[in-house]
């Protein structure tokens, strides 16, 4: 039975503007010891999935950059425009099924920091073992909440997934997941809650609620069965593209059909209805490791070592399709001065450019050669509101 992995590398990363741009989104910028988040995601699969079965799905315009950074990548599924995670995952499943009808596929993110890597690999093997033993099951990964986040979805957990008789696959899965990470059923997917609800979830503890990591493992054929059941119009569009008999025909169908597919996340389109469907089992492997979603400046700033007043400073890599040896990492510090200031974050691509704070509290300043952002920390999740105005006045 074949195992595949698809790294979801879509999105323009506007919440990390001005460092991340449509021309070079966050997942391609080197931020981890000279490596991009996408490269780290690819290397995280070493020893679990062979390189030729490690694929990525993202904007068609970035394929050359991705292949330059990761020459060993198996296949790059280029989207003419983003249609959210449901379309990306469904198309990937259809193309995997065409190559290996009985394959199980992991869908992984391209903008997370996950450590230690070997513990994640153990969890991934456990998810594959369970999905292969029980082909009707959809596997996901949960993270213990560290605060009442309103920007993440939550998994409401049920009982432990029991072995059926003397099921050697689930026994192996339990062993690979580790003693403290028993596989649990998922009662319900709870999409991004308000603050009061998030606080209640966190108060009830990780035995009841985990953050939804946005990563999954399931049989490609099973996902497509459920897509036809819950979203038949999207299923028909995906099948038309996948039936193409040549790369030229497929490229034409991608241009003509893919942009017409309804934008919808896999959580709303598949996982939420599946969690209420008695014919479907959803199970979760709790991740007992460090997990950071580098999707906003607050999250990015968590990679920095703060001073005693909670001020962080980071030297970021400039946007470039290629990066040279010695690219700065998130731990490098630029020239900064904090006077009577607390809880601030300074990020710059210029090591000689001084950023000074006086009497500031919880402010983010991001300096790049052609744009500078100044924003309260409690507004960084709303940068999508700013970006339309930026795109009108400033050429990327």
Automatic annotation (TrEMBL):
Annotated region described as Disordered, given as residue ranges: 311-333
GO molecular function, one term: mannose-1-phosphate guanylyltransferase (GDP) activity
Name of the top EC class for this enzyme: transferase
Gene name of the encoded protein: manC
The protein's name in its UniProt record: Mannose-1-phosphate guanylyltransferase
SUPFAM superfamilies the UniProt entry points to: Guanosine diphospho-D-mannose pyrophosphorylase/mannose-6-phosphate isomerase linker domain (SSF159283), Nucleotide-diphospho-sugar transferases (SSF53448)
UniProt entry tagged with the keyword Cytoplasm: no
Organism, scientific name: uncultured spirochete
E.C. number(s) listed in UniProt: 2.7.7.22
């Amino acid at each position: 039975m074949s195992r595949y992995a698809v790294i979801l590398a879509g999105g323009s990363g506007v919440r990390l503007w001005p460092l991340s741009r449509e021309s070079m989104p966050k997942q391609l910028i080197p931020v981890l010891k000279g490596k991009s988040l996408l490269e780290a995601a690819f290397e995280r699969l070493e020893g679990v999935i062979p390189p030729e079965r490690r694929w990525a799905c993202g904007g068609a315009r970035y394929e050359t950059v991705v292949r330059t950074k990761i020459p060993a990548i198996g296949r790059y599924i280029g989207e003419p425009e983003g249609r959210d995670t449901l379309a990306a995952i469904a198309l990937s499943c259809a193309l995997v099924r065409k190559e290996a009808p009985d394959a199980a596929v992991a869908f992984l993110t391209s903008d997370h920091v996950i450590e230690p890597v070997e513990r994640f690999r153990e969890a991934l093997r456990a998810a594959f073992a369970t999905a292969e033993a029980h082909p009707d099951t959809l596997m996901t990964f949960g993270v213990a909440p560290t605060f009442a986040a309103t920007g993440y979805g939550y998994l409401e957990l049920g009982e432990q997934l029991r072995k059926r008789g003397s099921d050697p696959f689930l026994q192996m899965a339990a062993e690979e997941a580790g003693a403290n990470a028993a596989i649990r059923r998922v009662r319900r997917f709870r999409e991004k809650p308000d603050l009061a609800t998030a606080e209640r979830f966190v108060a009830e503890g990780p035995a009841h609620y985990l953050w939804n990591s946005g990563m999954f493992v399931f049989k490609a054929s099973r996902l497509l069965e459920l897509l036809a059941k819950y979203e038949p119009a999207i299923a028909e569009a995906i099948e038309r593209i996948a039936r193409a008999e040549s790369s030229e025909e497929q490229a034409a169908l991608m241009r003509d059909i893919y942009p017409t597919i309804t934008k919808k996340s896999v959580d709303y389109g598949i996982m939420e209805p599946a969690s209420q469907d008695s014919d479907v089992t959803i199970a979760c492997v709790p991740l007992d490791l460090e997990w950071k979603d580098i999707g906003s400046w607050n999250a990015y700033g968590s990679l920095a070592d703060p001073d005693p007043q909670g001020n962080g400073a980071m030297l970021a890599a400039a946007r470039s399709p290629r990066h040279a040896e010695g690219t700065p990492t998130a731990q490098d510090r630029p020239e900064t001065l904090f006077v009577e200031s607390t809880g601030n974050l300074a990020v710059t691509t210029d090591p000689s450019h001084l950023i000074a704070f006086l009497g500031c509290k919880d402010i983010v300043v991001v300096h790049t050669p052609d744009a500078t952002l100044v924003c309260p920390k409690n507004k960084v999740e709303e940068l999508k509101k700013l970006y339309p105005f930026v795109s009108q006045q400033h050429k990327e």
